[in-house]
Specification:
The protein is an all-alpha fold. The protein has a single domain, classed as MetI-like fold. It contains 13 helices and 2 strands; from the N terminus they run αααββαααααααααα. Strands 1-2 form a two-stranded antiparallel ribbon. The longest helix is centred in the C-terminal third of the chain and has 33 residues. The chain is globular. The model has no long low-confidence stretch (mean pLDDT 85).
């Protein structure tokens, strides 16, 4: 009972605080491409695009690694020193502060991405959507991998033994028995990771480039909804400026909620 009241309270607070922006710009705030605090012109479309590009690209990058870790720890090596060590290392990744990921990205990933950009003859910024997505992919792997491992462990042993008794190889058992059986848990892990990627702030802010323009490609500097709030909230002296940033927070809240609802719907449909 407490959680729904808290969620409704947060939603009402965001709506009230963003009301001046809602009244001034209406739906144009969502599709507007210009963000100019000096002339009080605010459009959040570049930040929405930057958020989705970064989150979905990081999810695509992380899926093979998350699935590999889940299968390795959940099926091949369940017990012993090596699985315990790998599991501890994976869990350690989720406990590292995001600012540390941001520093590591600045000093390690940015030069690598800059070298790749020079190979493709694009402006060698180093920072941008690709760099932020790589950082996010590393950050969300522990969430999807841990949930996927637990889902794989819940597959009944007799189901696997029945497949082996019919002559199936280990690869065939994993592909045709274990993964379909544990599919809902694995998918829920991916959506949990996507929700984490959409709302991540500090690490993304440090490596995404903080550009107010609509990104042209994955190498372009950009901004997410979370990063623009982190960068400009303390500078928002005008009421309409502050209200616009809060409206971005409202949009982020709604998008995260919709992602979670969509995830639950897909999981339920998969189960049926």
């Amino acid at each position: 009972m407490f959680m729904p009241v808290l969620i409704i309270g947060i939603l009402i607070t965001l709506i009230i605080s963003s009301f001046p922006s809602l009244k001034e710009f209406g739906f144009h705030f969502v599709i507007g491409r210009e963000w100019d605090p000096v002339f009080s012109k605010f459009g959040a479309f570049p930040f929405i695009v930057g958020t989705f590009l970064t989150a979905f690209l990081s999810l695509v990058i992380s899926i093979p690694f998350s699935l590999a870790v889940s299968i390795f720890l959940g099926e091949y090596f369940r017990e012993g020193f090596l699985p315990s060590l790998l599991q501890s290392l994976v869990e350690l990744l989720s406990g590292i502060p995001s600012v540390i990921y941001g520093f590591w990205g600045l000093f390690f990933l940015v030069p690598i991405v800059r070298a790749i950009e020079m190979k493709f003859n694009v402006p060698p910024f180093g920072v941008g959507i690709l760099t932020a997505s790589l950082i996010l992919a590393i950050m969300i792997i522990p969430f999807s991998a841990s949930l996927g491992r637990e889902a794989l462990k819940m597959v009944p042993q007799d189901v696997k033994e029945a497949a082996y008794s019919l002559g199936a190889t280990r690869y065939e058992v994993i592909k045709k028995v274990i993964l379909p059986y544990a599919g809902s848990g694995i998918i829920s892990g991916f959506f949990l990771a996507l929700g984490r990627g959409v709302g991540e702030t500090m690490a993304v802010t440090m490596v995404i480039g903080n550009s107010q323009h609509l990104p042209e490609n994955i190498f372009s500097p950009s901004n997410t909804m979370a990063s623009v709030i982190a960068n400009e909230f303390t500078e928002a002296t005008a009421n309409i400026y502050l209200s616009s940033l809060i409206e971005i927070g409202l949009l982020l809240f709604l998008i995260t909620t919709l992602v979670n609802i969509l995830g639950r719907w897909l999981i339920g449909r998969y189960n049926r």
